[in-house]
Design a protein that fits this description.
single chain, mainly alpha
């Protein structure tokens, strides 16, 4: 029989399409790479986003600003930007 850690509860009923299966705690969500990036954006660029959809909207409307922030956040040397600029946004579609 599978043993689950104390904080994980096995699902006892069938899963239905669209049903939320798991949600991170605020502490877990705060440790994600997305949270770290958005914190950096707020501190370094003054960019604050209420939710993922607003971050996504910024990424597709201010393409140059978004990609510059990505390159700066990840400390990508500027010579790579001149060699391989990203002409279109890459990512996942916004979720409602």
């Amino acid at each position: 029989m599978t043993q689950f850690p104390a904080q994980v509860t096995p699902i006892a009923s069938p899963v239905r399409e669209g049903e939320l299966l798991w949600k991170p705690t605020p502490a877990q969500a705060g440790q994600t790479n997305m949270a770290k990036f958005t914190t950096w954006l707020a501190e370094q660029r003054g960019k604050r986003f209420a939710d993922y959809a607003s971050l996504w909207q910024w990424s597709v409307t201010d393409i140059e600003g978004f990609w510059q922030a990505m390159w700066d956040y990840f400390s990508v040397p500027t010579e790579f930007w001149r060699i391989a600029p990203c002409p279109v946004p890459i990512g996942f579609p916004a979720r409602a």
